[in-house]
């Protein structure tokens, strides 16, 4: 283990250790429990998946001008399964930094199941705990809160809401809704949106593809949805980013 300078930890996790108290102060009890569970490995034992889940949690919790959101916008993107071998050590070291920050703060909120010393993170391959389902529900609630159009509204504008290249999210009370970022002011779909959705197979994974559109990407220096309809150069960037994601 590298005990000297510089710090070898993942940039996001290193920054989270520095802002741990502030993040907990902004969170409610359920959010604090999820944050602790992701950091100590009890909620998601795979460090890459835990890092991705933490990124989603922080984007939901923090304001756009928070330093951690800036790290998310400009730092490296880590997809589940995207790291292997000794690279996971960067994540493990980052999680250890956060655990030390939590343990050194006598006024901080304790983890749901505190121990005399932080337990080592579990190795990838263990089964995630059922509590992860609650996290998935939180992500879906965030996506369902996006501005959207109903199938009826789109039909009234002359758009086919059953186009398989459009994202449809199933709301438990209101039925299907289609995120509004997919459409121009006239209600017609942006051509690049249909191309990207088809490449990423939005019909099979509408929730995951919606996350791809609205979460910041370091390679684009923005959320993909923010680049829709700007110019052909941005369209080309979106298609290349989607192609890279599809390959991954």
Keywords for this entry:
single chain; 248 residues; mainly alpha; 3-stranded antiparallel sheet; 11 helices; 3 strands; 48% helix; globular; disordered N terminus
Task: Describe the protein in words.
The protein has 248 residues and is mainly alpha-helical. It has 2 domains: 11-129, no CATH class; 146-247, no CATH class. It is built from 11 helices and 3 strands, in the order αααααααβαββααα. It has helices spanning 11-18, 20-26, 29-40, 47-61, 67-74, 88-103, 132-144, 151-156, 191-200, 206-214, 232-247; strands at 148-149, 169-171, 175-179. The protein has a 3-stranded antiparallel sheet. α1 (11-18) packs antiparallel against α5. The longest helix has 16 residues, at 88-103. It is globular, with a radius of gyration of 20 Å. The two termini are 30 Å apart. Mean pLDDT is 76; it is low at 1-7, 76-87 and 104-132.
């Amino acid at each position: 283990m590298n005990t000297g300078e510089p710090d070898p930890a993942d940039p996001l996790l290193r920054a989270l250790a520095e802002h741990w108290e502030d993040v907990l102060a902004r969170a409610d009890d359920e959010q604090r429990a999820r944050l602790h569970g992701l950091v100590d490995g009890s909620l998601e034992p795979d460090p890459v998946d835990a890092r991705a889940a933490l990124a989603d949690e922080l984007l939901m919790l923090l304001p756009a001008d928070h330093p951690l959101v800036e790290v998310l916008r400009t730092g490296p993107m880590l997809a589940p399964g995207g790291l292997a071998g000794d690279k996971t050590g960067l994540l493990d070291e980052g999680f250890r930094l956060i655990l030390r920050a939590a343990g050194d703060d006598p006024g901080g909120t304790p983890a749901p199941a505190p121990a005399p010393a932080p337990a080592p993170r579990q190795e990838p391959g263990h089964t995630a705990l059922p509590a992860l389902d609650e996290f998935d529900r939180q992500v879906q609630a965030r996506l369902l809160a996006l501005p959207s159009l109903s199938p009826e509204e789109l039909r009234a504008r002359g758009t086919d809401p059953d186009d398989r290249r459009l994202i449809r999210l199933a709301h438990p009370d209101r039925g299907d809704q289609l995120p509004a970022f997919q459409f121009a002011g006239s209600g017609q779909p942006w051509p690049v949106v249909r191309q990207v959705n088809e490449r990423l197979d939005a019909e099979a994974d509408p929730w995951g593809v919606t996350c791809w559109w609205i979460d910041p990407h370091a390679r684009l220096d923005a959320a993909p949805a923010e680049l829709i309809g700007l110019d052909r150069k941005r369209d080309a960037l979106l298609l290349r980013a989607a192609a890279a994601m599809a390959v991954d």
